[in-house]
Every structure is written in C-alpha cells, then in structure tokens.
Design a protein that fits this description.
alpha/beta; about 260 residues; Dihydrofolate Reductase, subunit A; 11 strands; eleven-stranded mixed sheet; about 25% strand; 10 helices
C-alpha cells in the first residue's frame, strides 16, 4: 500500500483518522500521578512458531520496512512532550535522532504545532549508566532538547564538559543506579505531561508489569523475516488483552497497526 504525499496538518489528520479511526488521538491520563502519561510505540514480529510477539531489531539493515510503521513512530513523537530512549539504543544507533522523519515529516510538524497546539520542541531523555558519546546525532542535531539521566559517577565525569553547554544538554544525577521511575519523576518536575517510550523490553516491560503504560501503538509484522532481525520477546498478546482495550486496527499487506489504551 503506497503512502501519499502529506505536508499539511489537515492531510495529516486525515491519514491519522484512516489508520487510527480518529483525527486527534487523545493520550489517556497517567496511570500514576507521580509520572507523565506513558505512550509506548513498538514494532514486533508475530512468530508463527509459538504465536508470540518478538521485537524487531529496527537497526538491522534487513529489518522489514513500512512507511505506515515509520509514520506511526513519528506520529507518537509528534503527540508527546518528551521521548525516552536508552543509552544502549544510542550506542547502537549513532545516527539516531528524534526529529520528525519518515514519509510525512512536514505534515507531522504542522499537525503537532497547530492541530495539537504543541509548538515547543520536545525533550529527548537518554537513560544510561555510562557517559554517552556527545557526538551522537541525538545530541548534535538540535532537533529536540536532550537530557542525560545517568549515574552519579557519570554525572560527576560530565561536569565541566563544555559540549554540554554548547549543545544545550541537561544532565541529571540519577543516583548509583538510575532507573526509569526516577527519570519519569524528573520529567514530571520539568512540566512534561506525556512521553513516548522508545526503548527495548528491558526498559519497557517493567512498566507494563507495574501498570504504568497508558497507551500502546503496536505495529505487527506478519510476513517472512530473517532470524537475525528477531529480537527479545515482547509482552504477550494475553497480557495486552487483559490490561488494554483495543480502539482500532488497520491492516496493509504484511502489517497490522493497533491502538490500545489502558483499561
């Protein structure tokens, strides 16, 4: 299924309605008042051998691609005040940026600023125990406002680093073992009301176990796939159906796109 040229907020709203059955997707309230509302966007493979969802290694050159999946990822970014990712993801994807990309970057930017009334630049929080590479694109692109939420040791090592000021990077001391809950509380203090989680199962799955995810935008690939592209197991379909209501499902030839909200 081809993806049309989209540049205006109105065209973007029509595409959002086509995929998710509503031109404006309200993010459900946070599951815990101490944290922002958590939106998780994920691309998974439905493994026919065991019927389980497995994370797709999107950084692998042989990973299946879809304009609709890319649109879903960037729509999630457009909807929120901050994006969270892990230091591991930044290390693996040096070219990672949270700028609006994919098949409709200008349309999504217009949709964010006018339809959603979010003219401000979102934060990008990197959750890491180690000192990250400050030359990574997520820091240098200035597409978002970067935050390093890290361990006390790494926080101390970063003090006095001129690049932090030059690039406008905030650094927060997360203690001896920085955890996602502390990062969420920090973002709440900054006035962040909603976040998009772009991290693997090691970060995301505990949020599901603790009932903290308000919304799941799930892209499911059903076609043929190489084994090297299949990652860790995602939360099960049974867990999703137990804790979430499915609001809409949209299908292309090899992909299904779901929107779930917490019960």
């Amino acid at each position: 299924m081809s993806f049309p040229r989209i540049e205006t907020a109105e065209e973007t709203s029509r595409k959002v309605k086509e995929i998710y059955d509503s031109p404006i997707l309200e993010i459900p309230p946070p599951q815990n008042a101490r944290y922002p509302a958590i939106l998780h966007v994920a691309a998974v493979y439905l493994d026919p051998s065991d019927g389980k969802y497995k994370v797709i290694k999107v950084d692998n050159k042989n990973a299946p691609r879809s304009d609709h999946d890319s649109f879903a990822l960037n729509l999630a970014r457009a909807r929120v005040d901050a994006i969270i990712t892990s230091g591991q993801v930044v290390r693996l994807e040096k070219g990672l940026t949270h700028a609006l990309q994919g098949p409709a970057p200008q349309g999504l930017q217009n949709y964010r600023s006018t339809t959603l009334d979010k003219p401000e630049t979102p934060y990008s929080l990197i959750l890491t125990r180690k000192v990250p590479d400050l030359e990574a694109e997520i820091f240098t692109s200035k597409a978002t406002r970067p935050i390093i939420y890290t361990s006390t040791d790494s926080y101390n090592l970063l003090q006095g680093n001129k690049a932090l000021k030059d690039l406008g990077i905030l650094v927060c001391d997360g203690g001896s073992s920085p955890e996602i809950e502390g990062a969420l509380e920090y973002l709440k203090i900054l006035g962040v009301a909603s976040i998009s989680m772009e991290a693997g199962p090691s970060v995301a799955n505990p949020l599901y176990k603790n009932g903290l995810v308000s919304e799941l935008m799930l892209s499911v690939y059903r076609g043929d796939i190489q084994k090297e592209v299949i990652g860790d197991e995602f939360i099960s379909k049974e867990e999703i159906e137990k804790d979430f209501d499915m609001l809409h499902k949209f299908e292309t030839d090899e992909w299904s796109f779901f929107r779930y909200v917490s019960k």
